[in-house]
Design goal:
about 400 residues, alpha+beta, five-stranded mixed beta sheet, 7 helices, 17 strands, globular
Length: about 400
């Protein structure tokens, strides 16, 4: 966002940020002009003693907390938060158009994330249950945003991209989404976990009804947005995203690898039609809490592919032709000519990637209760600052 703001207009994020909840990580410290939403998802409710309820911000100050000030009835799945996010978005668009100011809006509702919720207008309206209610409301909200662009007669000057941050959470069962033909879901690096919808809309510029086989990632939206604004990406760092405008406007296909990471471990890579898995893993059973069990591949079983433990295949990756086998059900035989030809292309790309990669330290290596949302900026204005416990950082333990 800072790249756009410097030369191009005004930006705002509404909804879920989830790239750090401490002050130095919040959106206004990373280029956004305005913020309405939360640094976290809407988890809770908490008792504000052992764990604080999650704050909602307006710009750089807290204006309340989920559950205590922004109501979510967890038992019934009722909340008006999506409507609040919608009105914030519409107001921002209208004010920027009135001021004749170019704008960048990052609208990120999280009602489809568990615990799912919907406003009274959509509550109990879907045969798909609470998750379906939340999807119906999201569809309505996106429609309202597009209608507003049309009514303000800026639709032909506005690029809109709709996507998600991961595949459906299959472990939520009927309370979550469905990944169709793709294997497994959120938390995994199979297609069901990593492939999301990508819908581009720009009347008069992007021809409707097209389908592209271009490999894209959410990181490409950064580079693409800069390109549309006529701004060159920073040259002092490696930029992972590519500019998708040649694909979206002219239908061009750009060769590029796509990396599948879990934490700091490269699990898989996609090059053209082929996806090579260097590690396989689909579920976990808690070591400290054995009763804790999650399967991220509910109802799916592919022998030697959906595995209980994380299995190292770095010596002989498991390879699929994703064009023919998008469900990752039929790995190529390791002695086949197709496997050998695919790995002949993939292996040097992986070797170069690993040789040039500058690894960061995972931000969740250490845990400290003192850095939770006890006393965010603005809490004093609401008389809602909670006592901060002593700082006791320790190495985190993650069951999964």
């Amino acid at each position: 966002s800072s790249g756009i703001n410097a030369e191009y207009g005004k930006s705002k994020i509404i909804g879920k940020w989830h790239l750090g909840h401490r002050d130095q990580y919040l959106p206004l410290r990373h280029g956004f002009d305005e913020f309405f939403g939360s640094g976290n998802c809407h988890f809770g409710p908490y008792n504000d003693v052992n764990q604080p309820n999650i704050p909602v911000y307006k710009n750089d100050k807290m204006v309340g907390r989920y559950y205590t000030n922004f109501t979510i009835v967890k038992g019934t799945g009722e909340s008006n938060i999506s409507q609040i996010f919608l009105e914030e978005g519409l107001s921002f668009i209208e004010s920027q158009v009135k001021a004749e100011t170019p704008f960048f809006l990052y609208w990120t509702p999280d009602a489809t994330h568990g615990p799912t919720y919907a406003s009274p207008m959509f509550h109990n309206k879907s045969i798909r249950g609470r998750y379906g209610d939340a999807v119906m409301e999201m569809d309505y909200c996106v429609g309202r945003i597009l209608d507003t662009l049309r009514q303000l007669q800026v639709d032909q000057d506005t690029f809109v991209f709709f996507t998600s941050d991961n595949g459906a959470a299959t472990y939520s069962k009927i309370q979550g989404g469905d990944n169709g033909p793709f294997l497994c879901g959120k938390e995994t690096t199979y297609e069901g976990g990593m492939r999301e919808p990508g819908i581009a809309w720009w009347p008069g510029t992007i021809k409707p009804g097209q389908t592209t086989h271009q490999l894209g990632t959410i990181m490409d939206l950064f580079t693409t947005s800069l390109s549309l604004a006529g701004i060159k990406p920073p040259s002092d760092r490696i930029i992972d995203g590519i500019d998708l405008t040649p694909t979206l406007i002219a239908g061009n296909i750009q060769d590029r690898p796509v990396w599948y990471y879990r934490g700091d471990e490269m699990m898989a890579v996609r090059v053209g039609a082929y996806k090579a898995h260097y590690w396989l893993w689909t579920e976990f059973k808690g070591k400290k809490q054995p009763e804790t069990y999650f399967s991220f591949c509910q109802g799916q079983l592919v022998p030697n592919v959906t595995v209980h433990d994380q299995v190292n295949h770095t010596a002989d990756p498991v390879v699929f032709n994703i064009n023919r086998d998008p469900g990752e059900k039929y790995p190529l035989g390791q002695h086949s000519a197709e496997y050998k030809a695919a790995m002949k292309v993939i292996s040097p790309i992986v070797a170069e990637h690993k040789a040039t990669l500058i690894k960061g330290e995972p931000s969740l290596n250490y845990c400290d209760n003192a850095v939770m949302n006890w006393a965010p900026a603005g809490c004093g204005d609401l008389n809602y600052c909670l006592p901060i416990p002593p700082s006791k950082p320790k190495l985190c333990y993650w069951d999964h």
